[in-house]
Design a protein that fits this description.
- Helix 5 links the parallel strand 3 and strand 4.
- The strands form two sheets. A seven-stranded parallel beta sheet has the order 7-6-5-4-3-8-9, sandwiched between helices.
- It starts with 8 loop residues before the first helix and ends with a strand.
- By secondary structure, the chain is α/β, with parallel strands linked by helices.
- The protein is globular, with a radius of gyration of 18 Å.
- The chain has eleven helices and nine strands.
C-alpha cells in the first residue's frame, strides 16, 4: 500500500528551505569550495580530506553521483516518498512494515535490528544514518555483508563531533590502504559510508537553536547541542523527498524505549538512564516533528 500523499503545503515549505542545507554530503567539490569544515570542532577540510579525494563522491547530490548510483539503484534527489524509521517502542503499536517498505526510500538511524520485528519495522533499508564510532562502523559493515548486494544500504555518517569524524577518517584510511581492522578486511563490494556535510550540520543546529530560544532553553545537564542521528535522517528526507513519513519517532510512555528492548515496569515518559544521551534532546526533536506535521511537511504514523 503506497503512503498517503503529504498535504500540498509541502511545496511551499520546500521552497522556503535554506538552499545551503541541500548540500547533503561531503564531496570533492565541497572540499575545494569550503576550506573549513564547520562542526563542534571546525577543522581544515583540505588538510583532512585531500588524501581521500578519490574516495569521496564527486557531487553532493545523490542522483548526480556515480559513486552513489553504483550502490543505490534509482538514486534520486527528488524521491517520490521517504520513510524515516526510528527505534521507538511506538513502532509496536502498529503493523506498518508493508507500508514502510512501500516507500521509494527507507532511512534508518543507527543500529539495524529488524529480524523478528519485520511486521512493525519493514525489511528494506536504503540509507542508514549513523554516528561513526568504531563499533557503529563495524556493525554497519557486518550487517551489510550479510545481505545480497542489491539489498545493501548506503551509510551516511553524521558530521557533528571530532570523535565521529576521526573514526570516519580512519575508516577512509583502511579502505585506501586496504588495512584490516578487527574482523574486517576491506572488500571492493562493501556498502559505502559517505559523510553528511557541515552545511547540513549547521542547518540542523540552527533549527534546534531557533526552537530553544537561541539555545537558552536547553537541558542544563549538557552544554552541547547535538542533533541526533534520527533528526539528521528526518532532515535528509525532508530535503530529498516529496512525501515524508515518520515511524518509530514518537514517545510511547507504556512501550519499551526501543522496540527491541525490555518492557517497562510501569508507564513513564522518563528516558531510562541507560538510554539518556545527554547531548540530545529527543523531546524537543519530537516537538519539531509534530510542528512539521501541522505545517504539512511530513506525516507521523508512530
Amino acid at each position: 500500500m503506497p503512503p498517503p500523499p503529504s498535504p500540498p503545503s509541502w511545496r511551499a515549505a520546500s521552497n522556503a528551505t535554506d538552499k545551503r542545507a541541500r548540500t547533503r554530503r561531503q564531496s570533492r567539490s565541497s572540499v575545494h569550495t569550503r576550506p573549513t569544515f564547520v562542526n563542534e570542532a571546525p577543522f581544515d577540510a583540505k588538510a583532512a580530506f585531500t588524501r581521500y579525494l578519490p574516495q569521496l563522491p564527486e557531487h553532493s547530490s545523490f542522483g548526480g553521483s556515480e559513486a552513489v548510483r553504483r550502490h543505490w539503484q534509482g538514486a534520486c534527489d527528488a524521491c517520490a516518498s521517504c520513510a524515516v524509521v526510528g527505534a521507538s517502542g511506538s513502532l509496536l503499536r502498529r503493523a506498518d512494515g508493508p507500508l514502510i517498505d512501500a516507500h521509494a526510500v527507507v532511512l534508518r538511524p543507527n543500529w539495524l535490528k529488524l529480524k523478528g520485528y519485520e511486521r512493525h519495522t519493514g525489511r528494506r533499508t536504503t540509507l542508514n544514518v549513523l554516528f561513526a564510532l568504531e563499533n557503529m562502523v563495524d556493525q554497519f559493515v557486518k550487517a551489510q555483508r550479510k545481505l545480497a548486494q542489491p539489498q545493501r544500504a548506503v551509510g551516511l555518517v553524521t558530521p557533528s563531533s571530532k570523535r565521529s569524524l576521526n573514526s570516519y577518517l580512519r575508516y577512509l584510511g583502511r579502505i585506501k590502504y586496504n588495512k584490516t581492522h578487527g574482523l574486517h578486511q576491506p572488500r571492493a563490494d562493501d556498502a559505502p559510508l559517505f559523510l553528511l556535510s557541515d552545511s547540513l550540520w549547521m542547518h540542523a543546529t540552527r533549527v534546534l537553536c531557533d526552537a530553544t530560544d537561541g539555545g537558552c532553553v536547553w537541558p542544563s545537564r549538557s552544554s552541547t547541542m547535538r542533533p541526533s542521528s534520527g533528526f539528521f535522517a528526518v532532515l535528509v528526507a525532508l530535503e530529498a523527498c516529496v512525501n515524508v513519513s515518520l515511524f518509530g519517532l514518537t514517545t510511547d510512555p507504556c512501550a519499551p524505549f526501543h522496540y527491541y528492548g525490555p518492557p517497562k515496569n510501569s508507564c513513564s515518559l522518563a528516558i531510562p538512564k541507560e538510554n539518556d544521551e545527554h547531548v540530545h534532546w529527543f523531546e524537543k526533536e519530537h516537538e519539531l516533528y509534530a510542528r512539521w506535521q501541522r505545517e504539512g511537511r511530513l506525516r507521523i504514523f508512530s
